[in-house]
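Can't paste images in this forum, so I'm doing it all in text. The chain is below; anyone willing to post the predicted structure tokens underneath?
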Amino acid sequence: MTGTFFKRLLAFILDILIVSLVVTLLSYVPFLNPNRDAYSEKYNELVNVYEQVEKNEISQEEYNEAAIPISYELYRLNIPTILVDIVCSLLYFGVLPFFMDGQTFGKKLFQLRVVSANDKSLNLINYLLRAVVLRNILISIALILVIYFMDASNYYAVYQNVNLVGYIIMYINLFMIVMRQDNRGLHDFVANTQVVFTHEEMENRLEKIEEEQKVLEKELEKNNDKKDKVVKAKTTKTKKTTKKKE
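Text version of the structure:
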């Protein structure tokens, strides 16, 4: 694992927080999220059912029978927010780096940059493909289609399986980033990209390495001087001993 991993992780966390904040703020705009009030009411229904099973007022089977259709309605009501999240993710992780020389705000802060894996110039399609895989956008679209086209009695199993595929992709991506020496994830292979330090960061690292080398060289010189002194002292002592014997 190289030094880019932890900085990439911190940069990604910051980027996700920024996107989440923007999506949350946009969810208060009635035009973008007309289902906000209905979603809150339905969510309260689900909480009430959950409290009933916690108090043993209803059985687990009764809870499942009541919760699944409520959850289905919640997912349907949440589709506008999911769409807003998809658009914001594409804009932030796809379009923004194209205009910021391969950087998001998180990458800029931690002095990282997305570059081509084979020295070819990256276009907008590369960045968008990277964003699609990184944010599991195809899975989000598939979940919307499941909710939109399937009824409450059939959607649950399909929804869970599609969601599982999303988690598998996410863990494969994370595993590749951690285990590969170049820290390239699945999204990097799809988009033909890799994440590297900026020139400024590389220069700082080279300066640190040079400083460390200078310190080591001084330590070696000191050790050599000590060895020379010890050798000279032993040689002088030997000569004196030899003279006494003569």
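The chain has a mean pLDDT of 86. The longest strand covers residues 112-116.
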